[in-house]
Amino acid sequence: MAQYRRLTVSDVGDVTVVRFVDRKILDELNIQELGQELFQLVEEDNKTRLLLNFQHVEFLSSAALGKLITLDKKVKAHGGRMKLSNIRPEIYEVFAITKLNKLFDIKEDEADALAAF
Amino acid sequence: MAYSMSEIYSNCWSTTLCLPSVRGAGKPFINELLRELSQKGWSAQEIFGVHLAVEEALVNAIKHGNRLDENKQVRVCCRVLPDRLWIEIADEGCGFDPRCVPDCTADENLETPNGRGIMLMRSFMSRVEYSPQGNCVVLEKKREAES
């Protein structure tokens, strides 16, 4: 498996659990790199059952949301599934305002998300 | 809530600056602004919203307005008053009509990867107003009443 700078990646059964290294996902260059690493998971490492754990994320911008949307499309195109978990209330509000809570399958915590695959 | 002039002067913070049109140019300003708000007792929730809105507005000005043209600058005027934050961000681009930005929450646009910045700015600020040309935006955040 490739090395990642913006992510920590581990396998739990057949689900790939992804955590974010950055607490604040807003720097454009970092977001570019983050997107490339997320897409690489799907397109090169063939990881198509993804759980994105936001436990450490305190802030994210609309550019980061864009990467998640593109990732979701790539996962679906590969016949996979993606879930999000451990989202702080203020970050969840960003998902709710933009109605992305309708697009993404968001679970309370990692155990809930894993059980839902 | 009414404030005396001395209270206003002692609690006021303002800055005017010109930023180059390079990614991340607004970071020192944003950090300074957030520090001021924190020192003045703004809540974490309010600071989160201001951070997000100002970040989105600066990215719009630098990336979409000035198109990362290093010959163009972004002018920022900011005032923190006892009861509100006022900030004006102007770029040297040709502007746009914010009414023409598609509704990112419409079902047909949910999967579009961009176009959410303005909606987030409007959600987290009390007022977001663009100049007629669309290359200058005023953001205002009224401070929540202290409990």
Q: What does this protein structure show overall?
A:
The complex is a heterodimer of chains A (117) and B (147). Chain A contains five helices and seven strands; from the N terminus they run βββαββαβααβα. Chain A is an alpha/beta fold and 117 residues long. In chain A, strand 1 and strand 2 (15-20) form a beta hairpin. In chain A, helix 1 runs parallel beside helix 2 (62-77). The longest helix of chain B is centred in the middle third of the chain and has 22 residues, at 44-65. Chain B has 147 residues and is α+β, with helices and mostly antiparallel strands. The interface between A and B is medium-sized, with 23 and 23 residues.
Pick out its properties.
heterodimer, A: 117 residues, alpha/beta, five-stranded mixed beta sheet, two-stranded parallel ribbon, 5 helices, 7 strands, 25% strand, globular, B: 147 residues, alpha+beta, 5 strands
List the helices and strands and how they pair.
The complex is a heterodimer of chains A (117) and B (147).
Chain A: E1 7-12, E2 15-20, E3 24-25, H1 28-43, E4 49-53, E5 59-60, H2 62-77, E6 81-85, H3 89-97, H4 100-103, E7 105-107, H5 110-115
Parallel strand pairs in A: 2-4, 3-5, 4-6, 6-7
Antiparallel strand pairs in A: 1-2
Chain B: H1 5-11, E1 13-20, H2 27-39, H3 44-65, E2 73-80, E3 84-90, H4 117-124, E4 127-130, E5 136-142
Order of helices and strands of chain B: HEHHEEHEE
Q: So what's the oligomer here? A: heterodimer
Q: How much is the average pLDDT of chain A?
A: 95
Q: What best-fitting shape of chain A do the alpha-carbon axes yield?
A: globular
Give the CA-CA distance, first to last residue of chain B: 14 Å
Q: How many β strands of chain B by DSSP?
A: 5
Main sheet record of chain B = 5 strands, antiparallel
Tally the helices of chain A: what do you get? Answer: 5
Structural class of chain B: alpha+beta
What is the percent of helical residues of chain A?
40-55%
Main beta sheet of chain A: strand number and arrangement?
Answer: 5 strands, mixed
Please mark out the parts of chain B with pLDDT under 50 across 5 or more consecutive residues, or reply none: none
Compute the average pLDDT of chain B: 92
Q: What gyration radius of chain A follows from the Cα positions, in whole Å?
A: 13 Å
Shape estimate of chain B: globular
Instruction: Please bin the fraction of helical residues of chain B.
Output: 25-40%
Spatial strand arrangement across the major sheet of chain A: 1-2-4-6-7
Alpha-beta content class of chain A: alpha/beta
Instruction: Tell me the greatest interface.
Output: A-B, 23 and 23 residues
Helix and strand run of chain A: EEEHEEHEHHEH
Strand content of chain B: 15-25%
